Amino acid sequence: MTGRSNRGRRTMVLAAVIALAVLGVGSYFFVRLGDQAERGASPASPSAHASTSHPTTAPISPAPTPPPTVLAPGAGSGPLPTSKGVLRALGARLADPRLGTGVSADVADLATGTGLLDDHATRLGQPASTAKIVTAVAALQALPADFRFVTTVLAGATPGQVVLVGGGDPTLSAAKRGAAPAYDGAPRISALAASTLAAGATQVSQVVVDGSRFTGPAIGPGWDGDDVGGGDVAPVSALTVDGGRVNPRSRVRTGEPDLAAGRAFAAALGVPGATVTRGTAPAGAKVLATVSSAPVGQLVAQMLSTSDNVLAEYLIRQVAIRTGRPASFTGGAAAVRAVVSALGVPPAEVSMADGSGLSRADRLAPAALVATLRAAAAPGHGRLHALIGDLPVGGYSGTLAGRYRSGSAAHAAGQVRAKTGTLTGVSTLAGVVTDDDGRVLAFAFLADEVATSGTTGAESALDEAAAALAGCGCR
């Protein structure tokens, strides 16, 4: 530790700017805490997440001062920590009994890749929702920047019939006029219905719902029995509204998302009594109307900020389609692995069964998470740079809004950007932290043998470990 005051640097960080040194070149990209709102990731949006608790989204008081445009030249390029220094800072904290006995960790310098801590870093462990980092990078890398999910209405094979074709958009909303949808920037069933009526389909008596874009099981392998019932996720269907919620502001999910979408569409058409059945669109059918989701970058931002399981599962299916694989759990997981492997993440360290981290069969090594974060910050991967800015900020946003506010980790508020992960018996944290010398470090901490009743204690222990990096020059 340097012993110098870091008040000036923390003021700039708390004013909402972090500069990250880009690998191998003398340039930087800059991340503002305001990026979540600008990209549409509202922490207040309802979400499902791999967790037994729900994120706190109350605003910080007092509010941060308006951010400057950039940090001074050279920010983020302080002295490199040493392995001994990092071990001295983290050794006892990662041995905290609140984390149980299944702890693994990796820490590396973000700019150079220099390894600073290897505590069983290549051991495969349950990642919980830190898996969404891998899903996010795969989606940003594989999909065009202007990619949007598209929902289509086609003329049916018989008079009075229309076909609602799901394009895999979980954000399509049945929210009433003037009411907020479940997801920011969501297209609306009401707009789709209005366009359908304007196209001349004014005598609808039957709505056929077509969810054939996705294949395979609707429930993920290794999901806990109460994941759907508890509102953490919905059965996966290429046609759904509001992430499978029974209404946009509810956590309760429907067991038949495609039929629920069809009924919502019929109601929006003004024919709530219309028959709703499953089927497929006839070849060459006339397109009556379409609506599109927000662009993929905004969807990824929302997924990371609120840890939305549904968005994760739909994004991996689109990555699967893009890479020529089935749009299923198996195809999506294989596609994500292939995409991040091409970015330099060792494939042996990635073994996923879904995209959200809900599955008990998911396995990731801490080293794979750190490698993914480094890929996102690399100078040749400009499309991935947004990921760092989309991560929740300790004490400020997303699933970290209610953490780093008190206790021994509070000094690191604004300095830790990380994805949380929580399942019963599992607590994880992975992201980046700016240390006391201004160096940006990538880290991943996995604890997958936590006591069943120890979730809160394990989260605090992980926060304290990340805060130790923030307060350490580690030389």
State the strand order across the main sheet.
4-3-14-13-12
Task: Please trace the helix and strand order, writing H or E for each element.
Answer: HEEHHEEHEEHEHHEEHHHEEHHEEEH
Overall structural domain count = 2
Q: What is the assigned CATH homologous superfamily of the largest domain?
A: DD-peptidase/beta-lactamase superfamily
Low-confidence stretches: 1-75
Level-1 CATH class name of the largest domain: Alpha Beta
The number of helical runs is 13
**Percent range for β-strand residues:** 15-25%
Sheet with the most strands? Answer: 5 strands, antiparallel
**Shape verdict:** elongated
Terminal CA distance reads 7 Å
- The amount of helix comes to 25-40%
CATH topology assignment of the largest domain:
Beta-lactamase
Q: What is the count of β-strands?
A: 14
What class, by secondary structure content?
alpha+beta
Mean pLDDT: 87
Verbal overview:
- With 475 residues, this protein is α+β, with helices and mostly antiparallel strands.
- It folds into 2 domains: 308 residues, Beta-lactamase (3-Layer(aba) Sandwich), CATH 3.40.710; 145 residues, no CATH class.
- 28% of the residues lie in helices and 16% in strands.
- The strands form 4 sheets. The chain has a 5-stranded antiparallel sheet with strand order 4-3-14-13-12, sandwiched between helices. A 5-stranded mixed sheet has the order 8-7-6-5-9, with helices on one face.
- It is elongated.
- The N terminus is likely disordered.
